[in-house]
Fold:
Amino acid sequence: MKIQRNKVRKSISIEDYIKASKKGNRMAEQELLGPGFHSSDRVHQSKKLYSRKQKHRGEEG
Structure:
């Protein structure tokens, strides 16, 4: 005869869920972009800012 034992179910807390979600997001980002830090936000440059690129020069040169 088998003896049934009560299984103790451990509920997942909100902190554990957030931690696992962040870890999964980091792993997915590293698969796409490679290892290391990758900035997701950049400073917006003005269109009027001078640069030496051809599109900012005039028709003269």
Q: What stands out?
A: The radius of gyration is 27 Å. The chain has a mean pLDDT of 82.
